[in-house]
Specification:
β17 and β18 form a beta hairpin. About 35% of the residues lie in helices and about 25% in strands. The two termini are about 25 Å apart. It has 2 domains: about 270 residues, Conserved hypothetical protein from pyrococcus furiosus pfu- 392566-001, ParB domain (Alpha-Beta Complex), CATH 3.90.1530; about 140 residues, no CATH class. The longest helix is centred in the middle third of the chain and has 16 residues. By secondary structure, the chain is an alpha+beta fold. Strands 1, 4, 5, 6, 8, 9, 10, 11, 12 and 13 form a 10-stranded mixed β-sheet that branches. A 6-stranded antiparallel β-sheet has the order 16-18-17-20-15-19, with helices on both faces. The radius of gyration is 23 Å and the shape is globular. α4 packs across α5 and α6 packs antiparallel against α7. It is built from 16 helices and 22 strands.
Length: about 450
């Protein structure tokens, strides 16, 4: 069962730091060196000073202890304020959907969630993790005793009972915080003090399974930290107990839940030949020329195939043409996709691309995909097209995909399977610094 808890959140004091959009940031793993410089220039109190300490990622404690000193100084001088009582925090994100003329609002809420080992079946991942990011986040948690980034968790609620209850608590109320980020996303946070509505939320959530949409490394870091503290004799007590983590919960059925596609651009293939590849693909795909590979044609064709399955777009430097590659209906994926995983896993577009084209036709193995040795991953299809068409670049070809559906994520996770790297780009990202949790240790 998914137990959730209100907590005494820590927030920036507007009267001390000025505009709040100057002190929050994108998640730590989305901050480029250039973005970090910009954040630090924006404000002496930008949260990037804490979540990305100098030389982070090393095994030295010093930068993390410096980050902790900075954070504690902000608390002591009133830059940050801790709620006197436990609360839940409704969180809405209103944003233009990239590549469309449509706006959406994703509705969720921030609370602490009980930590569970994956074996318990309550919290279900859909991605593999790597050790490096987990070590870095663990060092920061040890030093600060805080959780800064939001774990993005999905839950199923076909009747929208949770969102309706939240809406009833914030209707006609101004948000506690509302900031607009660098991507044009408006982030609004309200406060619901502990009381009967919170008890109702807890009852509604108790029978839910949780699916990690974003934050697998941080979830596993929270598990490790809990075990470490328990071994040291720290009890799991208080609202902000060591066996809980700060999470943002969003319904699978929420109309603002958007997954963006991640496109693939290939390089360093010594014997790559576009005509040869297209010839091989005709054995299993319907290969259709779609016109000249320019931005207008690409955008138009992406709109035409939007929502379809088992179809990609392809272009290469050797040709100025754009092609669609649609898997033949009679193709037997059980025979074509070499894997012991489920039929549903084999049917996902990204797995058809990786297994049937990259691996079987181009000889790109799983390690090379993971290490990005022969492929780069891009959200922007026009950028991918420009990279391939640049005669001075190393890039040879691009494949353009549709995103998976959120139900694909749920089904894969329910089967205990994982999706390939760069399969799910939930958009937009959740800001760091809106609410912070200090662990009771």
């Amino acid at each position: 069962m998914a137990d959730i808890y209100p907590f005494r959140g820590i927030t920036f004091r507007n009267e001390k730091v000025g505009p709040l959009d100057k002190v929050v940031s994108q998640p730590y793993d989305k901050i480029t060196p250039q973005m970090k410089v910009r954040y630090l220039e924006q404000s002496a109190f930008n949260i990037a000073r804490v979540i990305l300490p100098a030389a982070s990622g090393t095994t030295s404690e010093e930068p993390y202890l410096e980050a902790a000193g900075c954070f504690n100084g902000w608390l002591e001088t009133g830059i940050l304020d801790r709620s006197p009582g436990p609360c839940l925090y409704p969180y809405h994100q209103t944003f233009p959907i990239p590549g469309t003329d449509t706006k959406a609002t994703r509705k969720g809420f921030i609370a602490l969630g009980q930590l569970y080992d994956y074996s318990a079946g309550v919290v279900r991942p859909h991605e593999h993790t790597h050790s490096g990011p987990k070590i870095d986040r663990l060092m920061l948690t040890r030093a600060t005793g805080c959780q800064f980034g939001l774990l993005f968790m999905l839950y199923q609620d076909p009747g929208s009972a949770v969102n309706e209850l939240i809406d009833s608590q914030i209707q006609d109320k101004e948000p506690f915080t509302s900031v607009r980020d660098e991507y044009g996303v408006t982030h609004s946070v309200w406060i619901v003090p502990d009381g009967e509505p919170v008890r109702q939320m807890q009852r509604l959530m108790r029978d839910k399974k949780l699916y990690i949409a974003d934050g697998h490394h941080r979830y596993e870091t929270a598990l490790t930290y809990w075990r470490e503290q328990a071994e040291l004799g720290v009890p799991s007590t208080g609202n902000e107990a060591i066996d809980r983590a700060m999470m943002a919960f969003v319904s699978v059925e929420d109309s603002g839940l958007v997954i963006l596609p991640t496109h693939r651009v290939l390089f360093s293939l010594p014997e790559f030949s576009s005509p040869k590849l297209l010839g091989e693909l005709e054995n299993h795909f319907k290969v259709t020329p779609r016109g000249t590979a320019d931005q207008k044609t690409l955008k138009k064709t992406l709109r035409e195939i939007s929502g379809s399955r088992k179809i990609f777009l392809f272009t290469s430097r050797e040709s100025d043409k754009l092609y669609s590659l649609e898997l033949n209906r009679e193709a037997d994926l059980n025979l074509l996709v070499k894997s012991q995983l489920s039929d549903h896993w084999k049917s996902l577009d990204v797995n058809i691309l990786h297994k049937l084209i990259f691996e079987s036709c181009l000889g790109i193995n799983e390690k090379e995909l993971t290490r990005q040795e022969k492929v780069v991953y891009l959200r922007d299809p026009l950028e991918a097209l420009d990279m391939v068409q640049d005669p001075t670049s190393k890039y040879q070809a691009a494949f353009f995909l549709n995103p998976p559906q959120v139900q694909d994520v749920v089904e894969v996770a329910d089967r205990g399977e994982c999706m390939p790297q760069k399969s799910t780009d939930f958009y937009p990202k959740m800001l760091t610094g809106l609410v912070i949790n200090r662990i009771n240790r």
